[in-house]
What we know:
The chain is of the alpha+beta class and 256 residues long. The chain contains three helices and 13 strands. It has one domain (33-255): Lipocalin. The strands form two sheets. Strands 1-2-3-6-7-8-9-13 form an eight-stranded antiparallel barrel.
Amino acid sequence: xxxxxxxxxxxxxxxxxxxxxxxxxxxxxxxxxxxxxxxxxxxxxxxxxxxxxxxxxxxxxxxxxxxxxxxxxxxxxxxxxxxxxxxxxxxxxxxxxxxxxxxxxxxxxxxxxxxxxxxxxxxxxxxxxxxxxxxxxxxxxxxxxxxxxxxxxxxxxxxxxxxxxxxxxxxxxxxxxxxxxxxxxxxxxxxxxxxxxxxxxxxxxxxxxxxxxxxxxxxxxxxxxxxxxxxxxxxxxxxxxxxxxxxxxxxxxxxx
Length: 256
């Protein structure tokens, strides 16, 4: 009888030790492996988006946030010094286009819930309009520059994903990174002629050499600017511009 009691007492800690990995295995096999979400911050900024995350191991996952930026107008302020004088430009920009954010997450306590470290990539391709005014032949004329912008980069983020209900998840994250982008603006205003376009291109390049035009987070936006013109348009290009990117979100989703 004593030997039986001693044996049972020895088995109790063994059973408790074995219980934890068994629970982890059950959670890994029976728990959700996927979450479909949408970023409420993106929607507030008129970006239609969908986010899919898939559990790849007990502590890791991969995902993709993708969407489309609906055309909307916001004000862009630029502060610059041209010919020794300070100038402030305020213009309305109307971007629209597609974007994608693939990511990898590590959950120290186990995917898909808890705090995590994320490595992310970002790609975007936008088109936009830049309105401007000028005077010609005694007339005040309003027109638009047609613009395109694309970029690719990446960074790190911290976040936490929690189950509000057995299948209803909340995901909150914020991060920072660096991207390289290209920008192109062009005008083909029917009120202008080949001589006007040549003057525009020359003026852009001359100002780019002497001006220091700064936009918040972007620095001197005229670094590396190249302008050109032909008989029907004038344009300016900036290639490989480095700039910071911010990743943030509050997502609600369904796990399965």
